[in-house]
Amino acid sequence: MSINEGQDADFICKFSSFPLANKITWIKNESEELISENEKIEIFNLEESSALKLIKPNTKDNGSNYLVKIKNDFGEVSSNKAILSISSGPVFIVEPNNLNVLRDKEAKFETVIKANPKPNVIWLFNDKEIVNNKDGYRIEKDVAKDKYSLIINKVSSNNIGTFICKATNEYGSIEKSCTLDVLELPKINSKLDNITVNENDQAKFTVKVSGKPKPMFKWFKDENEIVSNAELFETNETQDDEINLIIKSCKSQEHSGAYYVKVMNDYGEAVSNKATLTINRAPKFINVPKNTVVVQDQSVKFECLVDALPKAKISWFLNGKELTVKDNIKFEADPKTSSNNLIIPKVSQSTHLGKYTIKASNNVGESEHSFDVDVLGKFF
Known about the structure:
By secondary structure, the protein is mostly beta strands.
C-alpha cells in the first residue's frame, strides 16, 4: 500500500471461515508484534473480513509489513504480507555537524536523510554548488543506508566558511548549514635573538608564534621553566601574535644563560631556538693587595683579581701618576683568571714609596682600590 505522508493507511483482508473465526490477529513486521487498538490504530472485524486502519502513520513505519491471522476451531491461516510505503519529503535523521580540522588533514561532513522517494542531495559552499572530484572535494552516498557525505581531501584556509547540505524530492526540500574551521599546529615564526644588556637594565626576548586554537606558552632558562614572579619577570602577548619575556632588572649571576620558549595547544607543540642573555657588569675587585712593607732593592709582586664583563682595563697609579714600564716595573695579566699583577723587580725607596691605586674600568663602570707601600733601607 502506498500513501503520502499525513494520509491514513487502510488494510482490508477478506476471508471465509466455517465455523466462524473465533480469533483475528494483526501482526507487524513478522515478529509476532501483535497490533492492538489505540488512538492511532483502529481494527474492524466482520464475519468475512477484517480491516486495519493506521491513522496518519509516522514515516518511520515506511517499509513495514503487515499480515492478519484468522483462526477457528479447526485451524489457522495467515494472509500475505502487505508493505506500507509512505511517500514523504526529506527528513534529517542525522544532521551534518560543524567541524574543526587541522590544516592539511581530511574533513568529512556526514548526514543521514530519510525520504520516499530517495532525495536528490547536493552540497554548497558559500552558496555555490560543489562539484564532485573538483577543487579537492569528494561526494559520497550510500543510498541503502540513507547516508550522504562530503569529503575535503586536504583542508586549507580556503575551506573556511559555511557549507549547506540540501535534499529535495517531489514532496519537499530541506537544508542544513554547517561550518568548517581550520585549526593549526603551534608554530614558531621568528628567531629569538641573543641579547646583551648592562647589569640592572631590562632585557626583552620576543618571538612571533601562530596556532589555532591560540597556543599557550612557557618560557625556560637553561632547561628550567621560569616560574612566574611579577617582581622579576613579565610575560605577555600582543595582537600581532608576538609573545615576550621581560626580565625587569638583570643580575649577572641569576639571569645570564640560554633562554627559549615552548608553545602548545590541543594539537601539538613547538619549541624556539635558544638565545643567550649576556649581562655586562662593572668591574669588581675579587682580590686586591694590602698595605705592604718591602725592603730596598728586593722584588715585590702585587696581585689583583677583577671580575668584569666586558673585560676591564686595568691601570696602576703611584701617588696619582699612572705607572708605565718606564718606571722599572712589569705588568702581568692572565685572561683566563682575570688576574692583573704589578711586579717591581728592584724596589727603590726614592721611586716606589707611596700610595698605589688600581683602577679597573669598562663601558659599564669603573672601580678602584688603593694601598700603601713603605720601603725600608737595607740592614747590614
